[in-house]
């Protein structure tokens, strides 16, 4: 069988599974999720062995990639916890809006239903396999998983364990489908199957995003880069500004919601910047500043045009002194990626204006950008952080993995 | 300037306009909509003249296409009413969800914001120009309109009148952008501009849908065909079944929510079909039935495999006798387009099961499929009926032309 036919056949099986899956009871889905967690637990050594094979083969990967590929005992335990946590969350499927009644007596409402078949294209991290399979199952969607070739042994082991447990628990075959062919053509074919796959979610770096969005005939919800800013206003509490800025840069710099640039009102810059500069540098942060910033922070480098709007994903912070909030907002429009934007201020009018006029998946007052996250927002779980404006924006929880249908109750109404 | 650069420049202007437009007050937007309606009224003769030029040039169009292209005095008046109706609707922009508070004190909520720049690609009907410009303006979106070449004079006249009035009312230039170049390459270029256009909505026939979805790099919400069914259950009120089926087929057969096929439970077929058959045939409906149907309705034709799943859009109805509701639902899965599906029954268990298990943008009990419509559902207006599963499904009103951003209020929270 050629690759196209093979991918079609796998996607077709997922589509076939998606119908019975969409009307499965919450109880059966939850029991399956618990059984999947149990099976991961029972097969920890096998998963570790498979992961070892991938790591042994990964001779050309960067340290960061190797870290993402590695399944530590904690990460394998986290997969189990994640599946059990998803089982404990409310089922979004079947939840109904208030009904309204039209003058002709028709009663109308909306009910949540699964999207159908979701294709996930991801890199490196094999724990994504279990996490996304759990989220899709709970939300009643079949999933077609396509992991990176570097994680093929880990992913295959995990998927075989999950599908075995799911099948025993009454989940239709095909509901969790893994494309275990490392050929890149499999992705291209997958992205053309509008008849079988309803939504594509790519998770990974910029190269993957661009490849998927340029090729896909299927709707895509991107989980793209975050170039997040903190604007420290004239009326900021400077201690708070320091704590929040430090946290947003340093706590986990490799994430999309870490802050990449600080915009500082010129009135408070002479007080604020030397202190935060010293604290950041002591934590190993390289500072790339505008000329005025460089004059206020010893050992800061001059930023180049390229540094504004860059997702560093490491301990580098760009800093710019701005005349006022308008200049800060203009900078954010020009260089931000509409991911997460924070203002630090005690001025109510300034915070209201910032919340209204700045557009991003999350806009915050006096809080670290690192909070833009499904767990931190209280959604209970997350598929990732959408940077697409339609359907889901920001953290995607279970509800965002569903769509709605209108339901109408009549007693014989006809249109005039 | 070549076509690509010309389209980029127009789309760039729309993007530039979209930012100030997104935060414009409801009052200014409503005044602009009223002014646009006034301007249409003041320029009725000029619009009729421009339409006459299109009609004179339209020597090769079908009668149906000519009808859609024609701007009767009533249609020109309807454009005005439409704009004033949209002005009177609530503004979705800025509406905020309930806020929730996290254990760390963060307050989180969601606020509706415009999508940004919406590209509309449509055929024939020049009234779509005014309708969609009004909906996009009210929802704070810039719009890039691309109408069919056959309506170029009508569309140009309407757009010039609208943009003049909008500009005088304080709407930023570029907010209503019309691509007045009939070259098809303009569409291809438009569909590649992910940097400037956030969403594409195609409105038209299957050829247009396929061309747009296969080419677009921008997210698309399709308004595609409707292959709608009515299932007349064993426990149906037969008089109601007759009235609803007749209405759903005959009242306006050229629309996407008209019924194309009737599925009839075998127990009631011998009573129901001769009566409805006679009534439909008296109204000029051609019946194409399964063998059993043909034996019950004189002069009915035998349906071919091709007739199941066909969007006739005219006075033709396919009829099939089914063993039970399972067979009806199986037929709907195989041949329906997930647009509108109705069951006629007085059996509560049957209606509940049908509502749960049948998946379509609207699923109805005892009502004509013709009600799947934004005005009929009480949304106040509609951009069309989405057949895409993500973001908006079924009638798209003003709210569906917006997206959400998270807003977060803190007092210095940092992540541990």
How are the SSEs placed, and which strands pair?
The structure is a homodimer.
Chain A: H1 3-22, H2 26-42, H3 44-57, H4 63-69, H5 73-88, E1 100-101, E2 107-114, E3 117-122, H6 127-138, E4 142-146, H7 152-168, E5 176-178, H8 185-190, E6 199-203, H9 206-215, E7 228-232, H10 238-250, E8 259-265, H11 269-282, E9 286-289, H12 291-296, E10 301-302, E11 316-322, H13 325-335, E12 340-344, H14 348-357, E13 362-367, E14 384-386, E15 394-396, E16 402-413
Parallel strand pairs in A: 3-4, 3-6, 4-5, 7-8, 7-12, 8-11, 9-10, 9-11, 12-13
Antiparallel strand pairs in A: 1-2, 2-16, 14-15
Q: How much of the sequence of chain A is in beta strands?
A: 15-25%
Helix-strand string of chain A: HHHHHEEEHEHEHEHEHEHEHEEHEHEEEE
The figure for the number of domains of chain A is 2
CATH topology category name of the largest domain in chain A? Aldehyde Dehydrogenase, Chain A, domain 1
Mean pLDDT of chain A: 96
> Biggest interface pair, residues each?
A-B, 71 and 71 residues
Number of strands of chain A: 16
CATH architecture of the largest domain in chain A: 3-Layer(aba) Sandwich
CATH class of the largest domain in chain A: Alpha Beta
Order of strands across the main sheet of chain A = 10-9-11-8-7-12-13
SS-based class of chain A: alpha/beta
Distance between the termini of chain A: 55 Å
- Looking at the chains present, what oligomeric state does this protein adopt? homodimer
Largest sheet of chain A: 7 strands, parallel
């Amino acid at each position: 069988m050629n690759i196209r036919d093979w991918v079609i056949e796998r996607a077709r099986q997922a589509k076939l599974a998606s119908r019975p899956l969409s009307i499965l009871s919450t109880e059966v889905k939850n029991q399956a999720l618990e059984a999947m967690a149990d099976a991961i637990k029972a097969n920890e050594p096998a998963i570790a062995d498979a992961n070892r094979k991938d790591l042994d083969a990964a001779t050309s990967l960067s340290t960061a990639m190797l870290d993402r590929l590695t399944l530590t005992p904690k990460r394998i335990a986290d997969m189990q916890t994640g599946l059990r946590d998803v089982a404990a969350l409310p089922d979004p499927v079947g939840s109904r809006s208030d009904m309204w009644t039209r003058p002709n007596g028709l009663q109308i409402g909306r009910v949540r239903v699964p999207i159908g078949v979701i294709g996930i294209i991801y890199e490196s991290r094999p724990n994504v396999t279990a996490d996304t399979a759990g989220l899709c199952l709970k939300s009643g969607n079949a999933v077609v998983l396509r992991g990176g070739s570097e994680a093929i042994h880990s992913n295959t082991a995990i998927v075989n364990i999950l599908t075995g447990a799911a099948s025993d628990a009454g989940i239709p075959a095909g509901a969790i489908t893994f494309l275990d062919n490392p050929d890149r053509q499999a992705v291209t074919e997958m992205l053309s199957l509008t008849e079988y796959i309803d939504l594509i979610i790519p998770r990974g770096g910029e190269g993957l995003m661009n490849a998927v969005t340029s090729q896909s005939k299927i709707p895509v919800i991107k989980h793209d880069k975050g170039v997040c800013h903190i604007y420290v206003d004239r009326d900021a509490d400077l201690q708070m500004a320091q704590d929040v800025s430090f946290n947003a840069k340093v706590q986990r710099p490799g994430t999309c919601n870490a802050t990449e640039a600080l915009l500082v009102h010129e009135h408070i810059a002479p007080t604020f910047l030397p202190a935060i500069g010293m604290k950041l540098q002591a934590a190993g942060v390289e500072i790339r500043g505008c000329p005025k910033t460089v004059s206020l922070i010893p050992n800061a480098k001059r930023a180049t045009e390229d540094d504004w709007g860059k997702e560093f994903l490491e301990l580098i912070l760009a800093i710019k002194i701005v005349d006022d909030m308008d200049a800060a907002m203009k900078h954010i429009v020009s260089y931000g990626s509409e991911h997460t934007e924070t203002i630090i201020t005690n001025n109510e009018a300034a915070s209201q204006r910032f919340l209204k006029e700045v557009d991003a998946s999350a806009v915050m007052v006096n809080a670290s950008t690192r909070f833009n996250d499904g767990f931190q927002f209280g959604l209970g779980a997350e598929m990732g952080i959408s940077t697409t404006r339609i359907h889901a924006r920001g953290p995607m929880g279970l509800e965002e993995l569903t769509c709605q249908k209108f339901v109408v109750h009549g007693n014989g109404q006809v249109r005039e």
